[in-house]
């Protein structure tokens, strides 16, 4: 996204005032480029050198998770060290702020969850609000206060369903033009809502579009695949949308997403043909994450993915609950086409000892740090092979 216009004076929480003008300059750089990890790492170095090593470490840990979080996740799922730092220093870092639902992202207080425009305005007096989770009971109220979106780069609409008419009013407003992450999870906008998004002239800065649980179906995905203004999109989430092979094929054939790196297609109806289309697509060669969990790709679908030369950058692959069996596991184990793969999820796939042994004996999987195999009928022979594998010594295997 282009540089964000920073509201002046820049409002920061009280904790930062002890570090003077240098910290303020660094925070302003982050405010201009809130999705860029580099200014945050520079800030962490500054803190390390100026007596705040715990906050520096916390920022670095959170920066490493920036592309996998939205900011309001349950902190019990944070890694142990990150959670320990937060629990020890939370009161210090948030001193002077009201006890609201603040968004922690990239190591900083980035935003707030709000139910009323009054709270939203009050939050802008406390911090530079860049991320907002909006749970208005009456979304007409939101439409009457769209000026509050100025400077917001992440917008989540939660709670009551927005509806197509209100969605149209929202995305036809210039106020939304700086939003880079639009989260419409479970708003049930359907294909009509996708058409509304497609016709908006103000979504050219979108890098992440989250449309899970929206009843899009194949027809909605086909419309999405022809969006004219999504060339900057890096993340697309289409969980639980009734997407079948036709929708997967539309995505595979689309050249509209040249920067797409994370594609979430879990909990749909994609079968072998859809998996084959995705595997054969040269337009998906920049993917680092592919989630096909809880679909219907079967062994043949897994074999198609394993044959693909287009997934060289993939670090995360989820095929949970696809009935790929031993044959699918063997195909993945024998594939040389996943050199960057670090996290592989194969839970609930009817994989037995034969598939487990193939995974254990694969030199192509030696870069794995996480292997999910829960819910498979793996017996003592397969378990021992995994435990003794010379290629999985640095990998956390869950059985």
TrEMBL record:
Pfam families: LRR_6 (PF13516). InterPro entries: CHP02996_rpt-companion-dom (IPR014338), Leu-rich_rpt (IPR001611), Leu-rich_rpt_Cys-con_subtyp (IPR006553), Leu-rich_rpt_typical-subtyp (IPR003591), LRR_dom_sf (IPR032675), RanGap (IPR027038). It comes from the Bacteria. GO terms for biological process: nucleocytoplasmic transport. One of its GO terms (molecular function) is GTPase activator activity. The keyword Lyase does not apply. Keywords: GTPase activation, Leucine-rich repeat, Repeat. GO terms for cellular component: cytosol; perinuclear region of cytoplasm. The keyword Cell cycle does not apply. NCBIfam families: rpt_mate_G_obs. This is TIGR02996 domain-containing protein. It comes from Thermogemmata fonticola.
């Amino acid at each position: 996204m282009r540089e964000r216009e920073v509201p002046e004076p820049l409002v920061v929480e009280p904790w930062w005032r002890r570090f003077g003008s240098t910290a303020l300059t660094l925070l302003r750089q982050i405010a201009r480029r809130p999705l860029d990890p580099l200014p945050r790492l520079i800030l962490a170095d500054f803190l390390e050198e100026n007596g705040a090593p715990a906050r520096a470490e916390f920022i670095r840990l959170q920066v490493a998770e920036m592309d996998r979080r939205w900011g309001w996740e349950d902190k019990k799922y944070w890694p142990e060290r990150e959670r320990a730092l937060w629990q020890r220093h939370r009161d210090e870092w948030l001193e002077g702020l009201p006890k609201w639902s603040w968004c922690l992202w990239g190591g900083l207080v980035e935003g707030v969850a709000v139910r009323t425009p009054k709270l939203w305005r009050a939050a802008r007096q406390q911090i530079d609000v860049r991320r907002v989770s909006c749970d208005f009971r009456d979304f007409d109220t939101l439409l009457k206060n769209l000026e509050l979106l100025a400077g917001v780069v992440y917008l989540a609409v939660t709670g009551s369903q927005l509806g197509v008419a209100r969605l149209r009013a929202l995305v036809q407003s210039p106020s939304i033009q700086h939003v880079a992450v639009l989260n419409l999870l479970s708003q049930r906008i359907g294909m009509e809502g996708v058409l509304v998004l497609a016709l908006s002239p103000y979504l050219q800065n979108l890098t992440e579009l989250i449309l899970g649980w929206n009843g899009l179906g194949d027809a909605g995905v086909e419309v999405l695949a022809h969006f004219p203004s999504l060339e900057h999109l890096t993340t697309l989430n289409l969980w639980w949308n009734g997407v079948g092979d036709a929708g997967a094929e539309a995505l595979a054939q689309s050249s509209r997403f040249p920067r797409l790196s994370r594609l979430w297609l879990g909990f749909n109806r994609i079968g072998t043909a859809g998996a084959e289309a995705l595997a054969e697509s040269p337009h998906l060669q920049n993917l680092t994450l592919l989630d096909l969990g809880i679909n219907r790709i079967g062994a043949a679908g897994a074999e198609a993915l394993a044959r693909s030369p287009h997934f060289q950058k993939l670090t995360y692959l989820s095929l949970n609950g696809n009935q790929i069996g031993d044959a699918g596991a063997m195909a993945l184990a024998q594939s040389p086409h996943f050199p960057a793969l670090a996290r592989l999820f194969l839970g609930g796939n009817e994989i037995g000892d034969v598939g487990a042994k193939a995974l254990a004996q694969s030199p192509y999987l030696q870069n794995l740090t996480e292997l999910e195999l829960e819910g498979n009928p793996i017996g003592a022979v397969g378990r021992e092979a995994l435990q003794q594998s010379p290629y999985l010594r640095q990998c956390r295997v869950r059985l």
